[in-house]
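Long-time lurker, first post. I've been practising inverse folding by hand and with some scripts of my own, and I keep getting stuck on stretches where the structure tokens seem ambiguous. Below is the full token string for one chain I'm working on. Before anyone asks, I'm not after the true native sequence, just a reasonable design that respects the backbone. If someone could post their per-position residues I'd love to compare against what I wrote down in my notebook.
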């Protein structure tokens, strides 16, 4: 089970840190990722991280502004979001790949579970 938190209202240029807490599984066995869905748009990939944290991948739209990380001892994944833009407004979801799967499974949409979303609203 995945639980996302940390969303909120922030001004453009500001920062937020999202968290995704995992329970009921061996967290360190799963590649993880963040996705988002803006109103009227399809859900899109944001960032992914390998089970060890050694590999990360970002959508071009967030590269250089967002940082994905994980703490396997705490069963938690994070998304540090800096220099937020109006177009970052969306519901953000965390997701897990298949057990022992590589980071490519996240990029390919091979997801074993989703967390509930957390709303991020960026205002001008």
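-- Answer (accepted) --
I ran through it position by position. Result:
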């Amino acid at each position: 089970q995945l639980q996302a938190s940390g969303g909120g209202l922030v001004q453009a240029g500001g920062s937020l840190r999202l968290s995704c807490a995992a329970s009921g599984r061996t967290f360190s066995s799963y590649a993880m990722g963040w996705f988002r869905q803006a109103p009227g748009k399809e859900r899109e990939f944001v960032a992914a991280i390998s089970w060890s944290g050694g590999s990360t991948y970002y959508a071009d739209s967030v590269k250089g502004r967002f940082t994905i990380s994980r703490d396997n001892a705490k069963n938690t994944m994070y998304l540090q979001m800096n220099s937020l833009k109006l177009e970052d407004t969306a519901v953000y979801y965390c997701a897990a790949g298949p057990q022992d799967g590589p980071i490519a499974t996240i990029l390919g949409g091979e997801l074993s579970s989703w967390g509930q979303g957390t709303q991020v609203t960026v205002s001008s």
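A couple of notes from the structure itself: Residues 36 and 44 are 5 Å apart (CA to CA). The chain has a mean pLDDT of 95. Happy to go over any region you disagree with.
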